[in-house]
Amino acid sequence: MDSAKPAPEQKAMEGGEQEALDEMEKKVYKYSRGKAAYLGTLRDKKLKGQLAAREKLYGHSAKAAVQTEKWLLPTEGGYLEPDDEDLEKTYRYQQSSLVGEVDLSSSRKPFDMILPLLGPYTLGYTGNGRYMVVGGRKGHVAMMDMLNLELIKEFQVRETVRDVAFLHNEQLYAVAQKKYPYIYNRHGTEIHCLKEHGKSLKLQFLEKHFLLSSINSFGQLHYQDISTGEMVANYRTGLGRTDVMRVNPYNAVIGLGHAGGKVTMWKPTSVKPLVTMLCHSGPVTAIAFDRGGHLMATAGVDRKVKIWDLRKYEVINSYAARAQSLDFSQKGLLACSNGSQVEIFRDTGGQDYKIYMKHRMVKGYQIGKVLFRPYEDILGIGHSMGLSAILVPGSGEPNFDTFVDNPIETSKQRREKEVQSLLNKLQPETIMLNPNMIATVRPSRKKEKKTKKEIEEEMEDAVETAKSIEFKKKTKGRSKASKRAKKREEEVLKAKRPFLEQHKENDGRPDKKQRVGDEIELPKALQRFAKSRQ
């Protein structure tokens, strides 16, 4: 029997293989180090062989990176792409049309939860994006499993709730209430009352350091270690009351926005701010940090949203817009809320952010907080009439590392991760602007200036040494006593000169003449020439 395959089927297989090869070449080009060098003109055979071997090694490493991506990064992220960029704009797409185009599981994630009597609402997500905690201004607190869309626990604290934040996992979360922050477990049981924090306005949790930070109504910044209960730091900012506070995920530095238009950055081991930036001409209303830690977005009452480069502390871009809340997604999208409208900006290259999507709530809804859900293309919105979630394609990281964040982790995996994170807990001293400085050799410090007494003692020793020098006896009248005394005086002056220069540097203004003033008593013959102080 003839085992040859039919011609159409064989052509289809060849076409599929060709497409796979083309796709492979594109990915290899992504990981390659540019165009290979032309070695035909080289005459040195040894150098030519070395460079050829290196180029071959570069090609193998690019192919290995493509294979690794194929197995470890199976999912690719995508954005909204218009058919015609000149005529069609992505920000004109409505949520109703997006829900109809995505898959079934993604279409179930957007929602609108109307709770008009207990708002406005604030919200927070766990690091893996599975759980959400919400807090209503009038005392409503609830925790939900967003993977299964189930309500785990809700209760009423019967007093004002200003902010909510998860701790290291979904088992514990903090709620900033009327007088003090409280810590609850997932069953709604009160675990702790943190009275030392006072009337907290905002809460932030530093995951790798197990520190809960808060800013209260008196402008005091608190850091408390939740693993030991120790109050690590308590500082007065000195810039008045503020409720604008975010943590930089790159270096765990806390950023505060103040009423004078300044943004300050703090760490728990420094009494004074690490950085003070004048960002706006009016009060700062919102602040957000990029995942990489090098970009910061600020918004102010002066109707400007600014993007800052924290490596140079310079403005990259400034946009005429108002924003009550800002947030960066894992893939670099920036969400801004203004009144009842949400605008999402996307980096088109070179930190040039353009409008990507728009979403308008029902007229009259005032948005309080926007927050991207980790590892999902979802933006959570807390507003005056409840909670909402909208689809934002391309906002979440499509591939997750189970050793870092696992949205589908079991209880055993959660316990193991909790133990490992406690064992690997970083000390507060490791928080700094440039964390790459850790485990490097500290440069030698400049020598401190010597005191006047030390300089005089060293000068006396040098003078004694110079006086004790014995000169060689010379003939023909060159060893006279007067000449030897003159030489000794020259040696003494030479020994004194460096110490006199040090003395002048310590005093400051060494060459300027001292002014004649009333405090200096002049001879009677010169007193009539002194200027009288009026």
Provide a brief overview of the structure:
This protein is of the alpha+beta class and 534 residues long. Helices cover 22% and strands 30% of the residues.
| Helix residue percentage | 10-25%
* Strands, total number: 28
- For the record, what CATH class of the largest domain applies? Mainly Beta
The total tally of domains equals: 2
Could you tell me the CATH topology label of the largest domain.
Methylamine Dehydrogenase, Chain H
N-C termini distance = 125 Å
Largest sheet: 4 strands, antiparallel
Assign an overall shape: extended
- With helices defined by DSSP (H or I, 4 residues minimum), what is the helix count? 7
Portion of residues in beta strands equals 25-35%
CATH superfamily of the largest domain: YVTN repeat-like/Quinoprotein amine dehydrogenase
The CATH architecture of the largest domain: 7 Propeller
Low-confidence stretches: none
Q: Which class best fits the helix and strand makeup?
A: alpha+beta
Report mean pLDDT, rounded to a whole number.
86
Domain BING4 C-terminal: 355-435
Keywords: Nucleus, Repeat, rRNA processing, WD repeat
InterPro entries: BING4_C_dom, WD40/YVTN_repeat-like_dom_sf, WD40_repeat_CS, WD40_repeat_dom_sf, WD40_rpt, WDR46/Utp7
Pfam families: BING4CT, WD40
Can you describe this structure?
InterPro entries: BING4_C_dom (IPR012952), WD40/YVTN_repeat-like_dom_sf (IPR015943), WD40_repeat_CS (IPR019775), WD40_repeat_dom_sf (IPR036322), WD40_rpt (IPR001680), WDR46/Utp7 (IPR040315). The protein has 534 residues and is an alpha+beta fold. A hairpin with an 8-residue loop joins strand 16 and strand 17 (275-278). It has two domains: 22-72; 90-432, Methylamine Dehydrogenase, Chain H (7 Propeller). The longest helix has 28 residues, at 45-72. The N and C termini lie far apart (125 Å). The chain has helices at residues 7-31, 45-72, 95-101, 104-107, 411-423, 452-467, 481-507, and strands at 111-114, 121-125, 131-136, 140-145, 150-156, 161-166, 172-177, 181-185, 190-193, 200-206, 211-216, 220-225, 231-236, 244-247, 254-257, 262-266, 275-278, 284-289, 295-300, 304-309, 314-320, 325-328, 334-338, 341-347, 353-360, 367-372, 378-383, 386-391. The strands form seven sheets. The chain has a four-stranded antiparallel beta sheet with strand order 1-28-27-26. It is extended and about 115 Å long. It contains seven helices and 28 strands.
